[in-house]
Amino acid sequence: MAQNKTMLVMNGPNLNLLGKREPGVYGSGTLADVETMCRDYAKSAGYDIDFRQSNSEGELVTWLHEADENAVGVAFNAGAYTHTSIALHDAIKGISNPVVELHISNVHAREEFRHKSIMASACIGQISGFGVRSYTLALQALIDHLK
């Protein structure tokens, strides 16, 4: 059986609005642009991407559970759920896959409520503040971790 070479890239609430929502914070690129960038980056490293977005916390939890069987690692921009979701923290703790938390903006330079990540202690690391490049940095961190 061939080794699984798929990485899951998960996006939480409001990330479907990239390019429209606060372009001064998140840039003018769309989520489709981010997906293309991730696919190209992963392909150059010998990996495939399963790229998803949901505004539903429960759906994100289910995808994390499924990732344990269908992916080798997860790059996860949980959006606002980063700061509120014990369910996502517990789902990450409950799977064997490495998960990298990522953010387009520097959450530590924004509103106080964004400074605390509920998920961080369950993840292998956090990348924030590098614009959409945070996605490829998260993928690189996963690749390095998997080696």
Distance between the termini: 20 Å
Mean pLDDT: 92
Can you list the strand order of the major beta sheet?
A: 2-1-3-4-5
- Tell me about the largest β-sheet: 5 strands, parallel
Q: Would you identify the regions where 5 or more consecutive residues have pLDDT less than 50?
A: none
The CATH homologous superfamily name equals: Dehydroquinase, class II
Task: Please tell me how large the radius of gyration is.
Answer: 14 Å
Strand content: 15-25%
> Which CATH class is shown?
Alpha Beta
Helix content: 25-40%
Shape by Cα distribution = globular
* CATH architecture verdict: 3-Layer(aba) Sandwich
Q: What is the CATH third-level topology name? A: Rossmann fold
Order of SSEs: EHHEHEHEEH
Task: Explain what this protein looks like in three dimensions.
This protein is an alpha/beta fold. The chain has a single domain, classed as Dehydroquinase, class II (Rossmann fold, 3-Layer(aba) Sandwich). Helix content is 37%, strand content 18%. It is built from five helices and five strands; from the N terminus they run βααβαβαββα. Helix 4 (86-93) links the parallel strand 3 (73-77) and strand 4 (99-103). Helix 3 runs parallel beside helix 4 (86-93). The chain is globular. It starts with 5 loop residues before the first strand and ends with a helix. The mean pLDDT is 92.
